[in-house]
Amino acid sequence: MQVSPADNAPLNGPIISTFIRYAIPSVLGLLAITTASIIDGIFVGQFVSADGLAAITLLIPFFTLAFAIALMLSIGGAVRAGSYLGQGKIEAASAIFSKCLITVFIAGLLFMSFSLLLDQEILNLLGAPDALKMLVLPYYHILCVVLVIQMTSMLLYYFIRLDNQQTLATFALIAGALINIALNATFIIGLEMGLKGAAWATLASQSVQILILTSYFLSKQRRLTLILRPGNWSEISKVAYNGLSEFVNELSGGMVIFLLNWLLVFYQGINGLAAFAVINYMIFISLMIYYGIADALHLLISQNHGAANAKRIRDFVFTALALIVMISMFLISVLLLCPQWLIQLFLQDGAVESQLLSAQFIQLVWPLFAANGLNITLSIYLTAVQKPLPSMCLALSRGLILPVGLLLLLSAWLPNKQFLIALPLAEWLTFILALLLCWHFSPSKVTHKAI
């Protein structure tokens, strides 16, 4: 099946309207994905306890590993498949889709089995105090099962969007988010099931979400087909290599949170962990918005890279960066002007110490939001033009080397909670590196070499 470039909006449509057409469903979809954990945090913080919120925060680094694998294959596979679609090679794109889907599903099953068998050891590694272990175990066990569904859903979401069916992809995620909200209210408030109720709500909502996504296979307009024996499995290594920076980005973020959790428990106790959960959710929301914009960008760039169209690549990048700057300014305004509203959204009125700590954390961390979206966008640009090593350098810089190094250094030098300035400092140093790399691998240079 061949698709004429003339019928392809990424290759021929108006820059701004085409970008918005891809970006809005992408942002809404990823915000819907984010909603599951954020809603859990709000309901647990308000109707369970601050300790429950701290317990959820402790699990983030571990589950990040599973999402890192899924994200690597989803973005790396979508970029490679998008390049094939840009060249009109539909069968090759379908083969990539099939290999990635099978690989992610098997990886999810293995991760679930490993997590359930070694639950106590994993909680000890995460630094869970004994007071939190019994609270978090039922939530943890159910979430291990949910991971298989979430990883598979993530891959389906990226490839369905790649095939110009953004409406279906976004509808699935928004439906899952709304169901999650309703069930959280029912299980946590109505039935008083605590953390276990939040986990069951997530499982049910994610199950509905993946059922909606799989309706893609019934569509007559789809270009991608599922091939049970796609052959040439060595291509998965190329997909993984191309999505390596996204893997490093996600995994590194989990490692930074892991280190932060240990430092916060050491210096501030469980109250500090609960207080930082508010900042962590805000960072999570901002990242999903930025990833939504960047994901739309990589779909558009990958096809134009395959078609060797440097001008459209440059125009799409500038459009994405302009949107990122506007959103960053809005988020910073909310953080600085309405901090107490954000804090009370997640923490009960009785959690006075955690609320005070959270307000202090916001004053230290807010400059991070001015640079992290720009870094993500420029990193995705490098991935989309198939420059995975430079993209991985940015991912390692902002996600691991600089924040971990600065956190360890500043926690030894600065008193109390001041070490948190390591997070915005790492983002701004990375931004300098990002500008240099993207200037070196400009659209005109990468498309000239591609030809």
Q: Write down the domain tally.
A: 1
Q: Approximately how much beta-strand content do the residues carry?
A: under 5%
Distance between the termini: 24 Å
Task: Spell the H/E element sequence.
Answer: HHHHHHHHHHHHHHHHH
Q: Could you describe the largest sheet, including whether it forms a barrel?
A: none
Roughly how much helix do the residues carry, as a percent range? over 70%
Total of helices: 17
Specify Rg, calculated over alpha carbons.
21 Å
Mean pLDDT reading: 79
Query: What characteristic shape results from the CA principal axes?
Result: globular
Question: Any overview of this molecule?
Answer:
There is one protein chain. The protein is mostly helical and 451 residues long. It has one domain. The chain has helices spanning 9-12, 15-47, 50-86, 90-117, 119-125, 130-162, 166-190, 194-214, 235-242, 244-306, 310-337, 339-346, 352-365, 372-384, 388-413, 422-440, 443-450. Helix 2 runs antiparallel to helix 10, helix 7 (166-190) packs antiparallel against helix 8 and helix 10 (244-306) crosses helix 13 (352-365). The chain is globular, with a radius of gyration of 21 Å. The two termini are 24 Å apart.
